[in-house]
Design the sequence.
DNA sequence: GTCTATAGGGGGATAGAC
DNA sequence: GTCTATCCCCCTATAGAC
């Protein structure tokens, strides 16, 4: 049971949590309906198909990320503080709650999810990479990050690491995830 | 349609491929049956429940990995060659075919798969980590690998990276995966 | 916006014939 | 070992009343 001020938004919240928890093929309208305290059909009123619902979750997330990184609270940070902010999202909002990131969840099931969703996953993944790439490049220029090669490749590596480490945390526990975070810093910081 | 010399083995092969392709919740007995050219019930004869089938795939994989690493062809390699061997598994057998690793596939769906399967995933993940940790420690002692911190943590980071990068390859293409492999080497080799 | 009712399909699984 | 037949459940989705 969940407090309802705005059903449509609450449905998105529940769907997002379920996606991070059980994956697209692992959750159902019934899961959302029972938690929300309504019947199945009420969900279909707001989001006719499961694909619609999944896409809405992804679009909201992309919008949220865009707002975050363009907000002065993040935009004006040093590269090192930006990295900390980013790593902290993965630690406190995901690993410590047994959640994984939406991108990883849906890429693991990529070949068994609707095409429209696949596109959203691609878009979000690219957007995360762009931001991280720029942050890494800025940090190297400021001599706080140290790495060989291209910022784009280092960004792809880092994001892959985080994505995989969240999944590892599920089977082996959050302490292993924290160890990976520390190792990332050892590898990157001067 | 698939050639049948030994149904039970062929079923395992198909199930393994499907797990890497669509995930546990994304494939069905019907997928296997139709590819094998038999009816649904024939699969249940060999593996009564889907959980049984999943566990059998995992146990065979664990056994295979154990044989590999204890075989002289791998056991006697230098640490650097061992790493190349390992990375090549991920590149040629997975990324270039749109497959992901069993561990990543099932950890992404961890909260929506049977408990017996969860245990197998944990075991395999630990076994991979142990081998990689030893290889990294040996390589650092031989001064071919360079990294700060504990081999156990570096192993967890590396495996996470590979797991995540395979998933990324699905959405963004295998070239991105190859770039991550190169970055791993840049980060690790002297 | 939410309900009841229901359609229609696919899933996992079992019984018993061959 | 594989078949046909069947069960039962859950799923996504829709129609129409309230």
Sequence:
């Amino acid at each position: 049971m969940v407090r309802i001020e705005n059903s449509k938004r609450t449905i998105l919240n529940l769907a997002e949590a379920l996606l991070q928890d059980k994956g697209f093929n692992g959750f159902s309208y019934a899961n959302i309906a029972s938690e929300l305290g309504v019947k199945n059909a009420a969900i279909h009123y707001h989001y006719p198909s499961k694909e619609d619902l999944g896409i809405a979750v992804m679009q909201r997330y992309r919008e949220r990320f865009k707002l975050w990184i363009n907000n002065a609270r993040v935009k004006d940070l040093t590269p090192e503080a930006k990295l900390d902010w980013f790593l902290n999202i993965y630690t406190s909002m995901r690993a410590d709650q047994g959640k994984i990131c939406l991108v990883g969840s849906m890429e693991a099931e990529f070949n068994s999810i609707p095409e429209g969703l696949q596109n959203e996953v691609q878009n979000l993944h690219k957007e995360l990479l762009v931001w991280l790439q720029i942050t890494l490049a800025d940090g190297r220029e400021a001599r706080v990050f140290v790495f060989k090669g291209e910022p784009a490749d280092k960004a792809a590596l880092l994001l892959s690491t985080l994505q995989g480490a969240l999944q590892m945390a599920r089977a082996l526990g959050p302490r292993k995830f924290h160890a990976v975070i520390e190792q990332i810093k050892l590898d990157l910081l001067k």
Remarks:
- Chain A has ten helices and no strands.
- Chain A has a mean pLDDT of 96.
- The CA atoms of residues 12 and 57 of chain A lie 6 Å apart.
- Residues 28-30, 40-41, 44, 48-50 of chain A lie near DNA strand D (CB under 10 Å from a C1').
